[in-house]
């Protein structure tokens, strides 16, 4: 299927590995010029080389609103504009209520909520002027089904989901769609760290009996950025192999 994205320009945050990299790779394969960011220059340039000539690395830290804004502005300068914004960031440290102090909540909100707001503030107004745009956030299944031991992520990403839904309603008439994908367990470095390198226990909790392939996630992300997905907005879609158990 031709997704109608050839020649579009995308900024994909935190894309030197994991689901961000998979999303950037899928968009680049559709003919999108993709600016990717990460904090480690060597790792980032390696990721860009693996994606190919459509990838443009930008060293940036989206863990603060200032860094997130700077990434989008540099992507706009480098590409001549941004039609597609994929917000993404690493997860905050694990822990429960008794383990986490107040300052850690502020840092987590900057990382997983305020970075999303900042990137959207920078990218969305030009999209509205052009009457075409896609905002896609990579969050977590925890916004619907909190994950034990990840209280910071559960809290911050839920706030981001509320922001994204509200934004979707405000820009829907301007040709800009806003959606989020809620990944469950995928074969990423973060999941390996959380499970001590052994993904078999994570796989046991997935009805399909395996963790997700990041490339499958990337393909679905690219579809939500496509012309065919132009009537889809305001959604928060689990991509988790059936791990989310509620009816709605």
Automatic annotation (TrEMBL):
It is an enzyme of class 1 (oxidoreductase). Keywords: Oxidoreductase. InterPro entries: NAD(P)-bd_dom_sf, SDR, SDR_fam. One of its GO terms (molecular function) is 3-oxoacyl-[acyl-carrier-protein] reductase (NADPH) activity. Its EC number is 1.1.1.100. Gene3D superfamilies: NAD(P)-binding Rossmann-like Domain. It comes from the Bacteria. The keyword Oxidoreductase applies. The keyword Metal-binding does not apply. Belongs to the short-chain dehydrogenases/reductases (SDR) family. This is 3-oxoacyl-[acyl-carrier protein] reductase. It comes from Thermomonospora cellulosilytica.
